[in-house]
Amino acid sequence: MSIFAAAVARSKSGWTASELDLSGLADIDEVVDALRDTEPDADLAVLFVESDDEYLAILRLDEGEDLRVFGSDSAFAEESRIGSVLLGEVETPALGLDDLGSGDEDDKPAEPDADPVGDAELLGDLGVSAQRLLALCGMEGMLPSDVTAEICQRIGCGDEMEELREA
């Protein structure tokens, strides 16, 4: 499986982005340590893990301690060792689109065939509602990299992520 993992971290000096190698990490605690190490003084760090243009996992770490996890599809945990490390302990399904109520038509996926898991609200305070996140993940033609780019633009680190991808 092809994996791209990028962390964005926000500190007093602004956002930074860096690529992470998750291949040698054995469990979620090691992933959290690697995320924490990207910017030790960060008040917020978000890890985007894209796999084979099919799956996206997002991990959010507040103040280096409070971990929240979202996965675009529970199948990622079954089909990949990295997916299992990231999503293996996530037991709760993400809010279903039916649970989110009515919203903007742009926030409705074309055909929801994935089974999102975890905390879909993890970026709500940054301007990406659970409804928007689930819609982005379920939108026909949207690759995980497209979802990551859209989220990063909304939360204020789009330029940093774009520079990282181009490096």
From TrEMBL:
| InterPro entries named in the record | tRNA_Adeno_NH3ase_assoc_put
User: Which portions of the chain have biased composition (kind: Acidic residues)?
Assistant: 101-118
What is the name attached to this protein's record? Putative tRNA adenosine deaminase-associated protein
* Positions of region (Disordered): 95-120
From what organism does this protein derive?
Answer: Actinoplanes campanulatus
